[in-house]
């Protein structure tokens, strides 16, 4: 099939998907309705999951000079300590999402991805062999024939609407303003750095550059104002006074915008040849970076599956696993952010509960549970292979994703480095290479790596999917009948029929 994959939306999720497809050699076109790359960014951080997924592709290296690592996380603005996790995981990284978008576009274009700006999807007509996409540009309308279309075009997704996929949930009675303010060094806003929580709502202040502060107000129970209604400086000042009582600023607003996030999820992430990812599939209150991490992992989950199918290495059933795996994760993100909202308002009523939770967070196991939850690190897909008897138990690691564990495979490397090519990887920790031979029939799809045993990995061999998920693992030192059957089932399920 020579028609390209069309991605609607050139934000971080759409561009991450484009990178994944470009890495696999799939012809890909990104259609972005904005004429120019965004220079304004509501989001200023990426959580541990995003860092780890970018590390798997070598993309974090391109961002190192654009931001900084910070070992912190929160649940409803109650602080957690990621440094106390018993396992090694990435820390969050502070970087403007607009800069992440630029870096992803640079790398995707290097792989041959085409990014067209000022182009909006306004029509979709799909049949058994492809999708006819109507695109509106500054010079009129045109059509593009695509093999598949992926809507990464935000909460108001045109693709989702055109595909007839319901977006169910609730709107929050909430009014928010966000923007950047250029200030002098003695500005009163510096006294409010961090999160300021009151019974009315919250006010956050954080530095984003020399003499520039990012401010955000959030008022619960206030009348919602449509996001396309302009915000002026007077309205920002009044919102800050309502929340804090007396804080003002002498600074100059560089830009201001509204944010009024609902909690909604698409009932299906696929309709025939149309898929949804990121905010087009799920939106919720922006707490802990879960919106971006859930969307980026949507992209990483879907990209290799689309490529495998288009290149004749996988049946349609592989594409079905996208919704099966990612819809519950989106649902969970909506749930955990709603739980945090319940701890933010009304403050007079929830303060006792917040105090008790703060005490609980000092317990290592509780802290670890919540750090993994808000960082998107607790996701584990319930893989079951029909080829195996029910009596064959899955390894405890199956379906999970590990951090960038250091390894020695002839030379120093890591799990993340092994995944840079976007292929599957069989890592054999046995000195005899007991589990390596089976993967030989999937050459070009699965790399085989002999590595020294790693204390952080409680297994003698792992089969990693291109997205880093552990498709199979064993603790057997030799290739037993059970372990061989499990590995064969995993290889066939995720990487198609063997060759030779």
TrEMBL record:
Its cofactor is FAD. SUPFAM superfamilies: FAD/NAD(P)-binding domain. It is an enzyme of class 1 (oxidoreductase). Pfam families: FAD_binding_3, Rng_hyd_C. InterPro entries: FAD-bd, FAD/NAD-bd_sf, RIFMO-like. It comes from the Bacteria. Its EC number is 1.14.13.50. One of its GO terms (molecular function) is pentachlorophenol monooxygenase activity. Keywords: FAD, Flavoprotein, Oxidoreductase. Residues 4-333 form the FAD-binding domain. This is Pentachlorophenol 4-monooxygenase. The gene is pcpB1.
